[in-house]
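Thread amino acids onto this structure.
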């Protein structure tokens, strides 16, 4: 598919790139990472992001140094069906505004990484013959990306065989992750010492996102006595909502240096390096980072994620014997037994780590940009 306006202007002006991704960090970060990589190769390129008004991309994208325009678009409210009455009107108005943005900006290509605004933005670009590319982070393709995939040049995924995407257009290249996750890794014993932990004892890292996970926090509280008996050490990222309450809990403080309690972990590469076992939610970017970290992991999918995509993400790893999964509803019965099995079986930990390597894509950002540029040259 050729865009005549693009062909006529490409040789007389800098590359113009339209980006769209937002709603959550899992959509915003890949978009910014891809833009940063293109910027490295084309320093004079001009970028414009399209986001959803009142969503976090309207703040985070400018912080990353890029311009953004907002659409009055929202997602489906599954909890209040009456709230969806205005959705078709918002969608139509967003498509018209996105078309105006495309007309004025005249992009040479458009890249979408998901989020409410990504649908109207990429639909508008495709309607003008602009080459469109999709980066899907999850194992389950959302309905918007399924529709957009018909007009996309290429679709980049973090899992093989994502249903709903045409195989000839799909490339299993992984999710962009923070460069520090790759470059900041150190020897495990060295990391334990730097964190004030015993280098000769097993370390469990528990992460539940910046807000934390009530499920994980409650589970650790319920198993503190067993943790003490196990002699394992715990790096426990609580999230900001419950940190103060947990910090003053006498049941936790009496375990002393056996628990390293943190509201938020700023140096994740150090924590990953120190860990022998990781317990985590199953968000797409988290799994991509965990795969590069290469440590045996127990995934506890957030059950209320859209279309239960975290469970689907986790299942892809479980099917490859690259992780263990415990659902929220199974935590009381299965969590400690699953954790104990990993703690006691070094060979099992090694097997899970080795199999997890299948999903490790440390060069995802560069390879995605390589494929985009290669495709554009052949058009």
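Threaded sequence (379 positions):
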């Amino acid at each position: 598919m050729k865009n005549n306006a693009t062909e006529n202007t490409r040789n007389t002006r800098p590359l113009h790139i339209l980006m769209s991704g937002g709603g959550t960090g899992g959509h915003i970060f890949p978009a910014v990472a891809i833009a940063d990589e293109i910027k490295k190769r084309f320093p004079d390129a001009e970028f414009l992001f399209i986001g959803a008004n009142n969503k976090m991309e309207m703040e985070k994208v400018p912080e990353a140094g890029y311009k953004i325009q907002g659409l009055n678009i929202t997602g489906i409210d599954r909890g209040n069906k009456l709230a969806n009455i205005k959705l078709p009107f918002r969608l139509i108005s967003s498509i018209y505004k996105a078309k105006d943005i495309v007309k004025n900006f005249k992009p040479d290509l458009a890249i979408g990484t998901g989020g409410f605004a990504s649908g109207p933005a990429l639909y508008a670009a495709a309607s003008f013959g602009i080459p469109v590319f999709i980066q899907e982070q999850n194992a389950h393709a959302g309905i918007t990306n399924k529709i957009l995939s018909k007009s996309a040049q290429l679709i980049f995924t973090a899992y093989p065989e994502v249903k709903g995407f045409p195989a000839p257009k799909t490339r299993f290249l992984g999710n962009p992750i923070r460069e520090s996750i790759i470059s900041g890794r150190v020897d495990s014993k060295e990391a334990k010492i730097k964190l004030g932990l015993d280098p000769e004892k097993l370390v469990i890292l528990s992460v539940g996102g910046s807000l934390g996970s009530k499920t994980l926090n409650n589970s650790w509280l319920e198993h503190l006595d067993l943790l003490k008996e196990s002699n394992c050490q715990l790096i426990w990222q609580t999230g900001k909502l419950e940190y103060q309450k947990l910090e003053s809990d006498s049941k936790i403080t009496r375990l002393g240096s056996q628990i390293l309690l943190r509201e938020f972990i700023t140096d994740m590469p150090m924590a990953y390096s120190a860990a022998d076992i990781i317990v985590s939610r199953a968000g797409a970017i988290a799994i991509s980072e965990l795969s590069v970290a290469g440590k045996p992991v127990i995934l506890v999918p957030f059950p209320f994620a859209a279309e239960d995509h975290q469970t689907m993400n986790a299942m892809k790893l479980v099917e490859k014997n690259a992780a263990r999964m415990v659902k929220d509803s199974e935590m009381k019965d299965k969590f400690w037994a699953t954790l104990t099995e990993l703690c006691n079986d070094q060979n099992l930990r090694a097997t899970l780590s080795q199999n997890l390597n299948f999903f490790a894509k440390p060069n995802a950002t560069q390879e995605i940009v390589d494929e985009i540029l290669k495709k554009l040259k052949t058009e």
